[in-house]
Amino acid sequence: MIREGNARVAVFASEGNAGAFNFQGGDIGYIPAAHGHYVENTGNTTLRFLEVFKTATFQDVSLTQWLALTPPAMIEATLNINAEDLKYFSKTKPIVVGPAPVNGTTVA
């Protein structure tokens, strides 16, 4: 559920099946189990969204980190990404961090 802001959600599965969908505050989307996805803030304000998982275990995979740690020749051959461009991908997993509190307030 998108609480505030505008987002593009890309969903991808096996065999090249993928799609991207635009959302705005109040919209609700569904991502099938075992489908990868990412959420991108497409607006110029803070994006706030809620994800709900029907599982006791949450697993997060950074595609950037996965690409950075995969042999460059394999990436180049299978994904048509220039191996030279892989230097821009982080080998460490980014952590999603909210904005810092302002004047002692908390972010809801």
Automatic annotation (TrEMBL):
Source organism per UniProt: Phanerochaete carnosa (strain HHB-10118-sp) (White-rot fungus)
Domain Cupin type-1 per the UniProt entry, residue ranges: 4-84
Name this protein carries in UniProt: Cupin type-1 domain-containing protein
InterPro entries listed in its UniProt record: Cupin_1 (IPR006045), RmlC-like_jellyroll (IPR014710), RmlC_Cupin_sf (IPR011051)
Source organism, top-level taxon: Eukaryota
Pfam families: Cupin_1 (PF00190)
